[in-house]
Amino acid sequence: MLKSLFFGDRTVKQVLLGKTGIQVSELSFGSLILGRLQADLTEEEAAPAVAKAVELGINFFDTAQSYGTQKHLRLGLGRAVNDVVIATKTHARTREDAQKAFEESLKEFGRDYIDIYHCHLIESSDDLANRREVLDFLMELKEKGLIRATGASVHKVEAANVVAAEPDFDILFPVLNSQGLGIPDGSAEEMLQACQLAKTNGKGIYAMKPLAGGHLRGSPKEAFKYLQAPGLVDSICVGMKSPAEVEMNVSVFEGREVPQEVLAQVETVPRTLRIYNRCIGCGSCVEVCDQGALSLDYSQADEKRGKEAQSVVDVSRCILCGYCAEVCPQFVIRVV
Length: 336
Ligand code: SF4
Ligand code: SF4
Description:
Blueprint: E1 14-16, E2 23-25, E3 27-30, H1 43-55, E4 60-62, H2 70-77, E5 85-90, H3 95-109, E6 114-119, H4 125-130, H5 132-143, E7 147-154, H6 157-165, E8 171-174, H7 188-200, E9 204-207, H8 220-228, E10 235-239, H9 243-253, H10 260-265, E11 273-275, H11 284-288, E12 294-297, E13 310-313, H12 323-327, E14 333-335
Parallel strand pairs: 3-4, 3-10, 4-5, 5-6, 6-7, 7-8, 8-9, 9-10
Antiparallel strand pairs: 1-2, 11-14, 12-13
Bound molecules: iron/sulfur cluster (2 copies).
């Protein structure tokens, strides 16, 4: 078990991530929530949650170039930065862009290698074919010891099966929760079947959106159990933005009661997606949302203001991934 002077007495159980030889805590820290797409914390505001995670024995931290949270993690990790496992991702479509993303990650973490590098959000076999030069580049990095494992994040079952069958990927990072929320083309059971294929092919698996973007936040114990029961998922990645949220999730993982004083500090207002009325109805957000949660309401058009429509969200389908906020030219979408 990984142990160093940076980790406190409480240590979340660790497991091997597939056949990568990488040992990770069963609870991993998702950093999307910290950055500009969600809570929009400064690096200084985010650091205490990251430091708390290290203190309580979480050694696995997930980020992505597009989240803008590599620096947040770096600051919070402090001297533990070389003792933890870092996974990051790039949307790069070319080798040149992948190279830039990789160099940026090294710089932002102040490390000379990255543990896991993902192709961010593979959609299909065609998409993978289009990004083959990026995967080839990642394989070269692995050969040189500059990364330890390759991986891909996915929302779709179709894509999970593609990644599961691709020998050059070591790790699958799918959306998975008991309700199947956030899986646009299938059910939780179908995603589990893809995970089974990945497992059979020796891949490590860690799951995102275990609480379905907040829809299951009332029953985290059951939500985590659902993912652990089939024995396919090595680690569960939960977005956490405060020390209290870290303490709460670690307590649930350890099978302890969450202390009342911790519960009192956890924000109880559910997060939601807000789209302000400076929206001009360009439709970019609707195109990027693979959950079908956004649509354009043309009845709110306002010719004088150059507004063609208003984007509206169906909160029952939204998993708060924040990807729509990333593409909005008006910067009017926020997860609050
Ligand atoms: S509406 Fe935006 S935040 Fe919600 S699922 Fe779609 S892309 Fe993600
Ligand atoms: S991307 Fe922004 S401006 Fe365009 S429709 Fe969506 S919310 Fe409106």
